[in-house]
């Protein structure tokens, strides 16, 4: 009987905490999307690329999913945050008289549905799961950061500030090192994280290039 009484509150508080995490993902996502729309025309040229970076949104989605108590809630937080960033961005631009293109909405809608769960699940695995799953978790984010930075340096250096992309690549490496020191245990797991990150970073520019063409083709 004592066990039943002591376990009941924990069972009740867990969904409530998860709901608060989802609400935070929604609110922060909307605010971040609105801030992105405004920042694109307000930031100096030296850092303007940050407002157009997929990595910025993915990093925020990852952080918002970190407190998730379960893998399911982590995935939902990833989807909710990216979807609300898109909604906040589009609504802010509409209110300012700048309607967003269909290509942009298709691109980020697909990112919310496909990348959102992976980022959210990765955050939850990094925080609460050992071994290979923790390595996979941090690799999803670091691979995106480094992969987009590679694309920026190789393809966009003529129209954007290369220093921003180099900084993003360094951030991806530093996050991987920090995760290795904080959560990853054993040389084998660290090697897995490095290899997984390299794989994502290699594939990302290819996928990003195809999606960028889609944004140009779809008005």
Q: Could you list the spans in which at least 5 consecutive residues all have pLDDT below 50? A: 1-13, 213-219
Shape: globular
Average pLDDT works out at 84
Question: Percentage of helical residues?
Answer: over 70%
Number of domains: 1
Treating each run of at least 4 consecutive H or I residues as one helix, how many helices? 7
Largest sheet: none
Strand content range: under 5%
Tally of strands:
0
Termini distance?
64 Å
Order of helices and strands: HHHHHHH
In terms of structural class, how would the helical and strand content be classed? mainly alpha
Radius of gyration: 19 Å
Describe this structure in words.
With 219 residues, this protein is an all-alpha fold. The protein has one domain (2-217). 82% of the residues lie in helices and 0% in strands. It contains 7 helices and no strands. It has helices at 2-39, 54-65, 71-95, 102-128, 131-155, 162-182, 187-217. Helix 2 (54-65) crosses helix 3 (71-95) and helix 3 runs antiparallel to helix 4 (102-128). It starts with a helix and ends with a helix. 40% of the residues are buried. The model is unreliable at 1-13 and 213-219 (pLDDT under 50). The chain crosses the membrane at residues 20-39, 45-66, 73-91, 103-122, 134-153, 165-182, 189-209. Pfam families: DUF6518 (PF20128). Keywords: Membrane, Transmembrane, Transmembrane helix. This is DUF6518 family protein.
């Amino acid at each position: 009987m004592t066990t039943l009484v002591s376990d009941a509150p924990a069972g009740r508080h867990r969904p409530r905490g998860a709901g608060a995490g989802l609400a935070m993902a929604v609110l922060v996502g909307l605010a971040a999307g609105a801030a992105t729309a405004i920042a694109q025309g307000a930031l100096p040229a030296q850092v303007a690329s940050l407002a157009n970076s997929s990595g910025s949104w993915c990093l925020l989605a990852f952080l918002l999913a970190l407190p998730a108590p379960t893998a399911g809630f982590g995935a939902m937080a990833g989807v909710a945050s990216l979807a609300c960033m898109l909604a906040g961005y589009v609504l802010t631009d509409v209110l300012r008289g700048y309607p967003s293109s269909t290509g942009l909405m298709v691109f980020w809608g697909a990112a919310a549905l496909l990348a959102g769960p992976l980022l959210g699940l990765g955050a939850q695995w990094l925080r609460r799961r050992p071994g290979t799953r923790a390595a996979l978790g941090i690799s999803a984010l670091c691979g995106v950061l480094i992969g987009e930075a590679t694309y920026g340096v190789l393809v966009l250096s003529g129209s954007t500030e290369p220093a921003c992309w180099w900084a993003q690549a360094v951030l991806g490496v530093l996050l991987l090192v920090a995760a290795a020191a904080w959560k990853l245990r054993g040389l084998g797991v660290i090697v897995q994280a490095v290899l997984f990150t390299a794989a994502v970073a290699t594939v990302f520019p290819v996928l990003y290039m195809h999606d960028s063409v889609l944004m140009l083709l779809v008005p």
